[in-house]
Amino acid sequence: MILGIDVGGTHTDAVLLENFQVRKKTKVPTNQLHLVSSLIGVMDGILRDEDLSALERVVFSTTLSTNAIVQGKTDRVGMIVASGPGLAPEAIRVNEDTRFVSGYVSNRGIEVAPLKKGEIAGAAADLKAAGIEHLGVVGKFSTRNPAHENEIGELVRGDFRHVSFGHRMSGNLNFRRRIATTYLNASVFDLYNRFVEEILEFAKRAGFTAPIYILKADGGTFEIRQSAEQPVQTILSGPAASVMGILSLDDCSGADAVAVDVGGTTTDIALLADGVPLLEPLGVTIEGHRTLIRGLKTKSIGLGGDSRVRVDNGQLLIGPRREGPAAAFGGPWPTPTDAMIVLGLTQIGDAAKAETAVAEIAGKLNLPVAEAARAIFEKTCRDIAAAVSAMVEEVNNKPVYTIHELLEGKKLNPARLFIVGGPAGAVASRLGEMLGCEAVIPRDAEVANAYGAALARTTAEITMLAETERGSLTIAEEGLQMKIPAHFTRKDLLKIGLEKLRERARRLGARDADIEMEIVEDQEFNMVRGYYATGKNIRLKAQVKPGLIAGSGKGGARP
Amino acid sequence: MKTRRKTGLVFFPAFDWAISPTHPEREERLLYTQDQVFEEGLLDFDNIVEYKPGLATIEDINRIHICVPDAKSVITESHLISAGGAITAAEKVLAGEVDNAFALVRPPGHHAMRVVHGARGFCNINIEAVMIEHFRRKHGHRRVAVIDTDCHHGDGTQDIYWHDPDTLYISIHQDGRTLYPGSGFPDEFGGPNALGTTINIPLPPETSDEGFLYVLEELILPIVAEFKPDLVINSAGQDNHYTDPITNMRFSAQGYARLNERLNPDIAVLEGGYSIEGALPYVNVGIILAMAGLDYSHVREPDYNPGAIRQSDDITRYIREMSRDVLDLWKKRRTFKADIVKGAKYARRNRNIYYDTDGIQEQQEETVRICDDCGGYIAIDSQASTGNRVYAVIIPSRSCDLCRLEGEKHYAGINKAKLGVHYLVYQDRDRDIYVVK
């Protein structure tokens, strides 16, 4: 049995699967003030009278870190930043408690200027004196050589309750994002670790030994103890749960597709290329912080079933605000849901109230009520379709850096539209028509998020750089630096890399059957100095693909 | 506080293209630049927008070049992309989407002349000229100033605009007596119909920031201001850098950024620059920040030591005098024509052109009609060591009625067989016609 729980902003959904079929499902309002207790309540309820020894895994998607960041309920964090030359410090600063220190490494990871111990001790003492307990340490190009970050860590050890290191957050280059990510990680560290302890205590008390996983923003999971060091990876896992749900409820393999979640207030859009969800190229953005956190590429528009409909200067306008439920459910204004009721596309709520509300719009547009309802419905679908098309176009216009990719690179061309959410049934076929896609409403769509979380596999990635001229190999996420011989090749790097990725994935909680690895970046350059080849610069990035665990019959690793 | 500007960036490092594996123009060239741009997170700034390059077309090339035997044979896809990248940069500026734009693309183009038999100085087609004629065709005529800050004289761009009074070409480069291609002296001053719209400023080896910025302030900016261009384009070569392996100058990332800020080009296009690790990452970050109006004062090379790369007093004196002479020449530009033309109806140049990259030798005779109303129609007879011989008649942009009439008549009267040429080309800029017989 597998237990999946999605703690959403409004509802907490739980689903208990047996042989990948729904055995029990439940939906309760989320208690935002006592997230852990509502979570434990749900677990308690759904697991009661079940044989806990048959439980294979438990997966949560939680809004804990997201909410803390969005609501500003985070801890004060001190930052020690070795910024080196480049952008001015003021363009880099993430908060008032940022201290800049000297010392930096070049883009190849070669030390150019050493750290100054006195400066670091001074900065640490200063931050400590301000009562700061959490520290972030970030160096420019630290993913190419983490030595400076590690050295700073050694120097301040004991001064702070916890230190977050930039190079551990991601293997990608982007100094400002590395700083923001490290800062956020440190700022929710305590809160998140208390959550982990409470969950582990509950599991112990309840007597279940199944591994517990947490959903990440990229639609993958990691084991709860492993997640404790990197709580920031758990932010914005909501859209990931929804897309993983769609993947798990239907066969999405092979084709390009659009996943649309039409809610009350907003519509969220995600894209699948060859059945695999698209990720943000660099990382997700939260509260104005651009991060290096791998996350699904999603677009949210202010248009949903409960959006207020009005007429301004003879123009029909829908959204972006929701000012209460649909009129059919006692709301103050006409909404797309009311129009759908009038058109007979859905049989919910009070049809008379819906008609009265739409009649108001009809009057202003000088149209019969049915035609006004049709106009509202058409515009709703058209606006969603336009947002989908714009997103597809944006992906297809993404810059590429090789001739091969520019001339022959993949173009996204969605053939199917997966649609979930309240109004899904009403808009599916029209939206599919507009987008030229086959529209599909997955079954059990109301617990899609919990279902998706339950079946999401553990993901991991590593970024490798080998330079035979210097005889060095760096694996950023692992903080690993190795010596390599001059005749080292791309094939050697691939072998080491995949081995290290497998180790990392196992450590993060992956089962061997779910470690489906792929190379996502693969470049090799001759390094030439003074007209002679001096070595090779080989760059590989490998990942365990986001997807579903083996055995689920869909999207999982093939035997 | 600097003024923030919205800057378009067309970044195309062509990671799968090289002239040869160890050639300076190889896959690795923009690798560390990419690393630096990514690490600084420049693309995250709201006022810096990255665009995918478009593809230039054969028509775009034929609008400005006479390629022998044809455009397809002298280029690869990479050239269509780098020229296309320059066009994209210009399009975004002209459409008002951005305030300025930088095409950080390769391969470069400023050694490619009007007639192209192959590659010279790592260049096959002139990506700036292809861009300029593309937007002139699409958006109407524009007065354009091209400021070429590559360390090598941009003899290709000079050749293409030699007779065009509406295109000011200013090249600042290492003295031709000490560096490829060996041209670019102040007396190369434009054709008889366009005197003064070609300006050459050769600088002595070991000129540093001080010298470059002096020439910019005292010579280039005043000339540009007087010319009143609609658009300023910077051929932004980066091989003046003190670490460049194939030149001898002492320019720095700070100098480049400052130059860019003061020149304030609408469009910058990368040209040469082969210190791929020690210079390009820092120079390009400096230029992008300067274009976007962001603080570049902390951009500096790992081994930057301004004291060690200061120019000598002799160089300072030399540059001061030369600048004065060139400015003098510019001021008197309208007085030379009668002496040069001496009443002739046509002016003729005979040249030997060497294509170092492809090892081709070309002999060219170029004739231009002397005209006070336009650039003058041009006839070119060109024969290369490849065995190809071409004869071309070119009707320039905004040609006067008489030049058009005479040019058309001249073309109609040519007997290809009798002349012994393999290809007869008619290129008409205003009507966008390119015919090969």
Describe the protein's architecture and organization.
The complex is a heterodimer of chains A (559) and B (437). Chain A is α/β, with parallel strands linked by helices and 559 residues long. Chain A has 4 domains: 2-70 and 191-235, 2-Layer Sandwich (Nucleotidyltransferase, domain 5), CATH 3.30.420; 77-181; 254-456, Nucleotidyltransferase, domain 5, CATH 3.30.420; 457-544, no CATH class. In chain A, 34% of the residues lie in helices and 26% in strands. In chain A, the strands form 7 sheets. A 6-stranded mixed β-sheet of chain A has the order 3-2-1-4-11-12, with helices on both faces. In chain A, strands 13, 14, 15, 18, 21 and 22 form a 6-stranded mixed β-sheet that branches. Chain A has a 5-stranded antiparallel β-sheet with strand order 25-24-23-27-26, with helices on one face. In chain A, helix 12 packs across helix 14. Chain A is globular. The relative contact order of chain A is 0.11. Chain B has 437 residues and is of the alpha/beta class. Chain B has 2 domains: 7-333, Histone deacetylase domain (Arginase, Chain A, 3-Layer(aba) Sandwich); 339-436, no CATH class. In chain B, helix 1 (31-40) packs across helix 9 (280-292) and helix 7 packs parallel to helix 10. Chains A and B meet through helix 3, helix 6, helix 13, strand 26 and strand 27 of A and helix 1, helix 4 and helix 9 of B.
